[in-house]
Amino acid sequence: MRARYVFPALAAVAALMLTGCVDNSTPAESGSPESSAAAITKDDAAAALVPAEVADRGTLLIGTEPTYAPNEFKNEAGDPIGWDIELAAGVAAKLGLAPTFQVAKFDNIIPSVAGGKADIGASSFTYTPERAEQVDFVNYYNAGIQWASVTGTDVDPDNACGLKVAVQTATFEDTDEVPAKSDACVAAGKPPIDKLKFDTQADVANAVVLGQADALSADSPVTLYAIAQTGDKLQPAGDTFDEAPYGMVVAKGSELTAAVQAALQSMVDDGSYTAILDAWGVTDGGVDEITINAAANG
């Protein structure tokens, strides 16, 4: 948090000390579900697709930035948790590998995967043409964008010219969504949106609660979680819009892409995928078919 005072209900999140779950309609305040990844078993067909150098190593190196609760965050011991973390661990289990999570800044994960320092990235990545130049996307979940504002205020995401809007650095909301809205404002002769960038999602929410920003923009599960964790000091601003697939990222053209797709599809087929989403209350974005580079092909 860039201000000295942190709203108490979010302080634990900012310090990565509070676990929680989110429901896409009525989020719960706290309590993280028990991990399902340990019960996931190897899929021999998927494991056969793993490149030899990864199979011989025996571990799957997974890049993530655990600052985006409830998708990826940390528990009291400092270990990454969240439903996206559990899905990534499940992929490793399906491939007969042990998951090794590499904590990194969000905007360093794709270069790390493209450069071979990590095998995959699991950090709520939304497809963009720029990202797709470096990596392939194994699509596994659909999330929309959801704005939030202080409870009792009236903020319209389609009429936000001149407002201050908080986003997490390097997210789709930072690089694409809010800038596009701001450009449209300028083109219409209206004042631009003042985009405020923060390193963590907890800081983004605090900026709105403390009055530094008029609204925040984030992926729908993340915004709903933030609303719950502030004790309803925040409210949804408008409806969810611009639904797009999340993708686990793999180096462009890597044989590992097909293996990750097969592993996730095996989890969908045996029910372990849905069990994880159910446990975290984010089932609404679940899919039946795991695809590769769906946004590019759609």
Describe this structure in words.
It holds the Pfam family SBP_bac_3. This is ABC transporter substrate-binding protein. Keywords: Signal. InterPro entries: Solute-binding_3/MltF_N (IPR001638). With about 300 residues, this protein is an alpha/beta fold. The protein has 2 domains: about 160 residues, D-Maltodextrin-Binding Protein, domain 2 (3-Layer(aba) Sandwich), CATH 3.40.190; about 100 residues, D-Maltodextrin-Binding Protein, domain 2 (3-Layer(aba) Sandwich). It contains 12 helices and 11 strands. The strands form 2 sheets. Strands 1, 4, 5, 6, 7, 8, 9, 10 and 11 form a 9-stranded mixed sheet that branches. Strands 2-3 form a two-stranded antiparallel sheet. A hairpin with a 5-residue loop joins β2 and β3. α4 crosses α10 and α4 runs antiparallel to α11. It is globular, with a radius of gyration of 19 Å.
How many beta-strand segments? 11
Radius of gyration over alpha carbons?
19 Å
- Low-confidence segments, given as residue ranges, are 1-31
Backbone shape: globular
Major beta sheet summary: 9 strands, mixed
Structural class: alpha/beta
Query: CATH-wise, what's the superfamily of the largest domain?
Result: Periplasmic binding protein-like II
Please state roughly what percent of the residues sit in beta strands, choosing from under 5%, 5-15%, 15-25%, 25-35%, 35-45% or over 45%: 15-25%
For the termini, the CA-CA separation is 38 Å
Number of domains: 2
CATH structural architecture of the largest domain: 3-Layer(aba) Sandwich
Number of helices: 12
CATH topology of the largest domain: D-Maltodextrin-Binding Protein, domain 2
* Assigned CATH class of the largest domain: Alpha Beta
Mean pLDDT over the residues? 87
- The share of residues in helices is 25-40%
Helix/strand order: HHHEEEHEHEHEEHEHEHEHHEH
Pfam family, one: SBP_bac_3
Protein name: ABC transporter substrate-binding protein
Keywords: Signal
Domain Solute-binding protein family 3/N-terminal: 59-284
